[in-house]
Structures are given as structure tokens and as C-alpha cells.
Amino acid sequence: DAGGAQVAVDPNGDVIAVWHAHDGTRDDIWSNRYTPGVGWGTPELIEHDDTADAFNAQLVADPTGHVTAVWPRWDGGVGAPAGIWSNRYTPGVGWGTPEPLATDYGPGPPLLVADPTGHVTAVWPQSAGLLSDRYTLSVGWGAAELVDAGNAAGPLFPADMGVSPNGDVIVAWTQSGVSAGKSWSIIWSKLYTPGVGWGTAEVI
Fold it and tell me: Is 55 helix (H, G, I), strand (E, B) or coil?
């Protein structure tokens, strides 16, 4: 039972794939690396914690060849603890140790982008709206912060995210709800400026 495969390619043409697979008890996150002229290596676990399922891993490669993977964890119960975790691949070293970014998680996979300097921004849904965290090369992951709380009409679903050459990040999401007996959805966006933070949400 393996699924949810995602791939990223570094500037040298090396490919890293991640996916989740069931071990008989829980779903774990696996990875493998393809080197041009050599082929695929040996699959390896980059997350293995049988207190919760891990699934829907997303990953991004930066210009330095580092790869960041982020995934949700969920134990399957109603009101069960959920969270977002991450691991980093360093060229010549391999995968590091998984670390938590947040203890809450909502519907939809996380989103990831890496800017030209190697900083990584992650965005994911949770009960209060959209959260984000940022990995900087000199510090690591910071504290998770709220991108947007939306409103009480319905949940937020991240749609996509992009990054500009100067490091600006834009994220788009859907806000759905029901009013006067009719269902509706609106697409919103918000811009992150390095050194400033997240701006004001606007309808697109």
C-alpha cells in the first residue's frame, strides 16, 4: 500500500521522490533518489512514528540542492491530535531528523516553495485558517504564524503557491460556504514580502 508520490529535481538533475506506505500498523514516509547515469538507489524511511499516520508529503528542491519535505500526521480519531512535520535532505549527507512545525492540521495537503537563496516557505490548513512557517538557512524553521483566519462560513483550502526571483511568496486559497441556501466559493490570495511578512488578503 504505497501512494501519494511526489518528486523534486535539483539543479544537477538528481531526482528525489517521496511517498507514504503502510507498514501493517501505520503509514510512514519513504524516499528514494535517482542519480543520472546511476539510477535509483535504495528506498529509505524519512519518517517512522507508529503513534500516528503520515501521508501526503510534499517536497521542494532549492538551487543549492537541498530538498525539504513536509507532511501531515493524523491518528484517525475524531478530534485526534494532528500536526505538520518536516525533514531536510542535505547533499552529501542525506536526510536529517524529522521535526514538528505545528500540532494542528486541517483538510488539504501542505504547500511548499523555495526561493533562489534557499529559503523555504510552507503553508497548510488548520482549524483556525491557514498557517505558515519559513525555513531560513542561518536559523532553520521559525515559529508558525497565521496567514489568514478566513471567516465562519466554511473551511479554507490551499490552492497553490508561487515565489518570485526576489523571494516574494504568493499563496491562493478557496473559501467555501453556504448563504441563503446556496453554496459558494471565493478565491483569495495574499502576498509575503521578506522582511515585512504577510500582507492583506484580496479576492482574485
Answer: coil
